[in-house]
Amino acid sequence: MKTFSTVLLILTISLCCNCSSSANQGITGGELSPDTLDRILVNQVGYLPTSVKIALLRVKANTFEVVDVSNGKVVFTGKPGPFKYWDLSGDSVSTADFSKVITPGKYQICLTNKAVYSYVFEIKQGIYNDIAKASLKAFYFNRSGMEITKEFGGKWARPAGHPDTLVFVHSSAASAERPEGYKISSPGGWYDAGDYNKYIVNSGISTYTLLLFCQLYPEYIKVFKDNIPESSNKIPDVLDELLYNLRWMLTMQDPNDGGVYHKLTNKKFSGFVMPVKATDTRYVVSKSTAASLDFAATMAMASRVLSKSAFADLKILGKNCLDAAKKAYAWAKANPAIYFKNPSDISTGAYDDMEIKDEFFWASTELGLAGNNPKLISAKEISEQKISVPSWDYSGITGILSISLSENPEALEYKTEAQKIVLSFADKLVEKSESSPYKVSLDFFKWGSNSDVANQAIIKFVAYKISKDKKYLSSIQGDVDYLLGRNATGYCFVTGFGGKRVMNIHHRPSGSDGVTEPYPGFLAGGPNTIVLTDCPGVTRSSFPAKSYTDAMCSYSTNEVAINWNAPLFFVLGAMDALNK
Ligand code: 9MR
Ligand code: 9MR
């Protein structure tokens, strides 16, 4: 026991000396026990100079210090707030507000005479630029049917996989014109997640989210580049990236009747092998009402965004998207209750939305806005939508966001109502983040909980766009801080960033490429208690905010997905745009 405390004392002293010395990187994760570093939770990437900056402390201290790691000098001393218990994390934290530190530099928060430290973070103009780029680049890394070259992928270069130029119509999708076994070509698009399949429902919401970004930040996207093969053309990279998926989506529509296949998939999930080695036969499976509606809504939104483009071929593509949207919508109207269920021989992701009134609302709304036909928008339906964040299975709020930002003069009466809904939702989220011990709005933990944090931030960004009220920005900062380390697990949830990094995402290329670091820029799904048994032998916390494990087996907490990276990119890109 005695020896143990002596060791601890020595460790403490050496930590103290390190932090206050001129070691210009400060203390890194490798040199400290994670427990020590987890006692102070901080956004491990950092802050814009003028933003609100709040760390969370898990130990009692009378004061906290902000130390400049380049010279060990204390630049700020503050008093922590009171401890507050969070029943979702099962622990108590107090706030350490150091918003007054505005000088660019690298810092650590230190406690108790510099015995306890945080990870190093940075204060800098443009701090979110690199991570925003990486979070968009993740889509490039997940492209199906394309080689990732060294030039654009660095050490994550890989041969192309899944050309999908020979795809079979599954019996569940057979029609007179396209019977079972009929061959189609459906190349391109993004892999959904850590698996190699492509699902229309999830592609729809992900592509929509990037389109909404383009609509909201038209100037920013003109200058934003993430070094992809298309970067040398004149089209913004965000648009180029989403077009890669949009063009694939168009191939998923049956030209004979306008119906849209639910997914393009293997029969079962492949093993953890590189794309080029995952050569199981691919099928398009069952047309569904939800897929057709999500497709219709996304294509209609695309037509609005592309109609603004300066490029003639994109304008034409926009018109084609609107036609495709109308046909898919007509199919859904004629087939209003084809709920997707995996056929008995298919076991990949289902995205089986059983409540699709909101998808009908979203699709008709988008068609109303895009086709200049506001009669398709219904005030009654607007008032009936649930107030909840967007997700693959909930599109009510998505339609409302679109109306609230619409420039269509004929939609004005609906716009006022939609804006009220967005503002009141955002206000509730802000109130929650202000009273929450962890300073976030999140108070539920689903599969992909981190994406709910990012989607809540999107609601606040839209509210900010409508009102210009800065209170939304402070609350958004809390969401960003959460994702980048100020959460109950202490992880920075974006691969390739932060002091406490996620290393073992459930992502087939990352798990089979032989490179130690995972593909960068991906948002890990995040804590939840939905499937506690995904990693045999690993016991996860029963507190949802802590129930996360950075292990490849944890598909329920550590997978990645396009519908999670899309809001991640939205939020980081919007933060970066604020700076411009
Ligand atoms: O690897 C699969 C992942 O991509 C899916 O999101 C997840 C949920 O559908 O399922 C994963 O596959 C697991 C399967 O569901 C159960 N057995 C273990 C598989 C993971 O290796
Ligand atoms: O995000 C989906 C989550 O809401 C579901 O609960 C879960 C199980 O059905 O599936 C998630 O989506 C996965 C999809 O089915 C297959 N690709 C990976 C997705 C993320 O885990």
Features of the shown structure:
five-stranded mixed beta sheet, 40% helix, 15 strands, binds ligand 9MR, alpha+beta, 580 residues, six-stranded mixed beta sheet, Glycosyltransferase, globular, Immunoglobulin-like, 2 domains, 10% strand
What does this structure look like?
Strands 2, 4, 5, 8, 9 and 10 form a six-stranded mixed beta sheet that branches. Strands 12-11-15-14-13 form a five-stranded mixed beta sheet. Strands 1-3-7-6 form a four-stranded antiparallel beta sheet, with no helix packed on it. The N terminus is likely disordered. It has two domains: 120 residues, Immunoglobulin-like; 381 residues, Glycosyltransferase (Alpha/alpha barrel). Strand 8 and strand 9 form a beta hairpin. Helix 5 packs parallel to helix 18. It contains 18 helices and 15 strands. The protein has 580 residues and is an alpha+beta fold. It binds ligand 9MR (2 copies). One ligand 9MR binds next to loops.
List the helices and strands and how they pair.
Elements: H1 2-20, H2 34-37, E1 40-41, E2 46-47, E3 54-57, E4 64-68, E5 73-78, E6 84-86, E7 91-97, E8 105-111, E9 116-117, E10 121-123, H3 129-141, H4 150-153, E11 167-169, E12 183-184, E13 198-199, H5 200-216, H6 218-223, H7 237-251, E14 261-265, E15 283-287, H8 289-307, H9 312-334, H10 357-370, H11 379-384, H12 396-404, H13 412-435, H14 449-467, H15 471-483, H16 508-512, H17 555-558, H18 562-578
Helix pairs in contact: 3-18, 5-7, 5-8, 5-18, 8-9, 8-10, 9-10, 10-12, 12-13, 13-14, 13-15, 14-15, 14-18
The structure holds ligand 9MR (2 copies).
